[in-house]
Description:
The protein has about 325 residues and is of the alpha+beta class. The protein has ten helices and 14 strands.
Amino acid sequence: MKSAAKSELDRAxxxxxxxxxxxxxxxxxxxxxxxxxxxxxxxAATAMYRELARLPIEGVVVVGEGEExxxxxxxxxxxxxxxxxxxxxxxxxxxxxxxxxxxxxALPNALSVMALAxxxxxxxxxxxxxxxxxIGPGFPDGLVDLDAAPADNLKALALAKGVxxxxxxxxxxxxxxxxxxxxxxxxxGAALRLISDGDIAGIxxxxxxxxxxxxxxxxxGGAPEGxxxxxxxxxxxxxxxxxxxxxxxxxxxxxxxxxxxxxxxKYSIRDMIAADLSFxxxxxxxxxxxxxxxxxxxxxxxxxxxxxxxxxxxxWIRTEHPDISKFD
Length: 328
């Protein structure tokens, strides 16, 4: 059973992490619509790293910006945090700009996201691909399955919702690799919502189909993004399965280096998130769930969500920052 002190610390950290995503979202938003994905990502990563360094944690980046030889900040295995006495030991999953292209083009649903969990509880995945399927809460376990045909999954979901397959909307990343999947979904009669980037947001959207118009997510995206999406679903409900996909020998080597030797394994949310967790996201551009950063003469306005898996608490936070220099 958790001590009262540990519970209070967990609660404080759950609120502190939203300050981290706010800072990285503001840094990225300064590059919004300027066509420079690299600059936006670097600015956001620098801001996120700076804010993480202020937290009373000893954190290890389990899901980050890449491997140590690929990025200077927030690389997999990097230790971050203030490291103060009695610092909380945690795993971190971070994505300073989920949807770099969306930010660079000022398109909807660019986010800054992170998750903080007990040490050793997040699945360590290499920066390769993951095949995913996800639906919202309120359905029997195993209703959809990564190994089932798309048409069968859509029929099962439609039956559970009491609607026709034609009433189901499927979110898929618009990529050439999904040509067959898209063809099968269309043949089933379901509607398609193709997105150019941002599959974390795409997966989160299945939890609020009345707001987002998305009932199910299918397809292959980034494995790190898969763990972050599973983190969000662990807080707000829903089902998700994922399987790592190695496109080449380099990917297979990265999987082995991460200690993963069974690339055929199918992961559930519980496999990816093994303990209590807090998740935060701040909008960079306007989207279906979060508004983007707004700069005015009065200050900077951010819109965020912060969640805890143990309590299923979801807080929507609108913040006015009167002094943008505090983000420097």
